[in-house]
From TrEMBL:
Pfam families: TAP42 (PF04177)
Organism: Furculomyces boomerangus
Stretches assigned to coiled coil: none
Region of interest: Disordered: 219-240, 314-365
GO cellular component term, pick one: cytosol
Identification of the protein by name: TAP42-like protein
PANTHER family noted in UniProt: IMMUNOGLOBULIN-BINDING PROTEIN 1
Molecular functions (GO terms): protein phosphatase 2A binding
Biased composition (Acidic residues): 327-337
UniProt feature, compositional bias: Basic and acidic residues: 341-356
Amino acid sequence: MDSQQNSSLNSMFLTVKTNLEKIESLNIPATSFEYQELVSKSLYLLEKCEESVEKLALFSSNETIEDYQTSTLEYLLIPILKSNLLKRKIENRLSLLEQSKDEVYYHKIMNGIKFEPVEQRKIKIDRFKAERELKNRIENLENKIHITQQQSLKKLDNENSENNESDEFDILDEVDDMDFLQRDHVVLLLALKAKLAIEELISIKSEVDLLSKIQNHSSFDDERNRSGGSDNRTEKRGKDVSWKLDTHSYTSGPVDFNTRNVGGKLLDSKGKPIQTFVITNNRTLIKEGVFKPGHSLPTKTLDDFIEEEFARGNVITGGGKEPEPKEDPDDNDEEAINAETMKKREWDDYTDDVRKGSGNTTNKG
């Protein structure tokens, strides 16, 4: 039974990784049905993976990373992948963000972070360099694994074609080497995801704070509207702009000028307006469509972006090469002295023949 569950867990996790690759490669909006459907399916499979991991009791707080098999280590990525997918959903944004953070690690990391600008900038640069180094090491390991697999397949084909029995010790050595490479790859991947998770938690905190303020502000406005507690300034402002804005739809019906209900024709038979109107009635709809959950908000300040560009080495500092100072002609070099003298004489002749300002004939006919 355990072997069947383990096999099912492996297949589900493999499907999730394939779906994540598809999501990253999709060139469609995050709000599209196809994108959101793929995210929902992957989340469902990850929840099933979590249940299987719990049933199989694969992990324990008393064990270290050295105690786990290589095939089991990869399942430690499930919470990180789930958090990543939850952030890609668009409905109930605040609730999803709360789900995507682990409360224990969230408060531990947030309390340990120093928010002084200078120290925070230095921490970000150091973290960026560490992430870049990890990515390079992971890429090198992936290339090495690919080459090793190709060599093993080629060797196996040659042995099969020659009908020779392969040496058992050679096969075991190759399996051990491959397992060692794959284990290093998973461990480095876990280290990279852990560093990226810190950035994600900081980003989640900023977005949660912003959405909470917006929600509280909206709740306050709704409560004030229900209680009818608007002040005189609000009422006066409403009267001042009532002739400018029109949120009613232009449907057929009589016009009541006392209640300012809009309906029927805008112009009479002589072409004169019989009611207040605006050119378009889509202004409210357009206003409500701004900054929806799918809208991409800035993730970093200009200072942070410039610091990262400096860290990547994409910024050229300093000016160009300074011009070499012009050397004075040697007193013993007659050719250089004669050339300098001729140049000065030509300039004197030119200034004698051409009057100063004679070339500027703009607006003088």
